Amino acid sequence: MRLLLVEDNPSLASGLSLALSNKGFSVNHVSKGQQALRAVQDDKPDLVTLDLGLPDMDGLDVLRQIRKLDSELPVLILTARDSVDDKVSGLDLGADDYLCKPFEIEELEARLRVLERRLGMVSSSRIEFGDITLDTATLEVIQKGNPVDLSRREYMMLKSLLVNAGKVLTRDSLEDKLYSWGEEVASNAIEVHIHHLRKKLGASLIKTIRGVGYTIPKS
Ligand code: CA
């Protein structure tokens, strides 16, 4: 899940980036409205959290512009403004949800999971496939009743493959899902994660499609 975090408060932004990337989001942080619009245009995220008080633009104008570019992109407004007027105009302009600062990170995560489910990428917080259960709320992976210890990126990769079971994911698309924007990716990184997943979950789960990518076939 690629999340665009639009927030001009540096300490809040770095706290949120850390917490959300630990929850399996690939986070792109920008601190200005113009940068947010550029990111939506050039490298579309799956979800946006949008602060309203930004240094260069009003967040509601950013939202208006985002809606012109993409009417479907889920946007959660995250702001210190808590007047009913702001809330109503945000929702009227097409925000999908609204959370007032200060908030608990758990609540933000829960609301992002709701938006994720609305995208149709996961139908509940649990994804079940064969003998594997992946819980997107607790980030736990259970195989045959036993917890499997995965690194954050192994978890993200397994989730992407399970959500897209039956489809082939290319190396590029997996890199996009696993790494944040602009992050340095070793050329064999994807192969290494696949290797570890096979070791932990069994060699037959993930198939290599030579020259294309990887898939978990639907049985
Ligand atoms: Ca702000």
CATH topology of the largest domain: Rossmann fold
Classify the secondary structure makeup into a structural class: alpha/beta
CATH class of the largest domain: Alpha Beta
Query: How are the strands of the biggest sheet laid out side by side?
Result: 2-1-3-4-5
Helix/strand order:
EHEHEHEHEHEEEEHEHHEE
- Small molecules bound in the structure, each named once: calcium ion
What are the segments in which pLDDT stays under 50 over at least 5 consecutive residues? none
**CATH homologous superfamily grouping of the largest domain:** Response regulator
Shape: elongated
Q: What's the number of domains?
A: 2
For the secondary structure, the number of strands is: 12
Distance between the termini: 25 Å
Give the name of the CATH architecture of the largest domain: 3-Layer(aba) Sandwich
Strand content: 15-25%
User: How much helix, percentage-wise, in residues?
Assistant: 40-55%
Q: What summary fits the major beta sheet?
A: 5 strands, parallel
Walk me through this protein's architecture.
This protein is an alpha/beta fold and 219 residues long. It folds into two domains: 2-118, Rossmann fold (3-Layer(aba) Sandwich), CATH 3.40.50; 126-215, Winged helix-like DNA-binding domain superfamily/Winged helix DNA-binding domain (Arc Repressor Mutant, subunit A), CATH 1.10.10.10. The protein has helices spanning 10-22, 33-42, 59-69, 84-92, 105-118, 152-163, 171-178, 189-201; strands spanning 2-6, 26-30, 47-50, 75-79, 97-100, 126-129, 132-135, 140-143, 146-148, 169-170, 207-209, 213-215. The strands form three sheets. The chain has a five-stranded parallel β-sheet with strand order 2-1-3-4-5, with helices on both faces. A four-stranded antiparallel β-sheet has the order 6-7-8-9, with helices on one face. A hairpin with a 4-residue loop joins strand 7 (132-135) and strand 8. The protein binds calcium ion (CA). Calcium ion (CA) binds at residues 8-9, 51, 53-54.
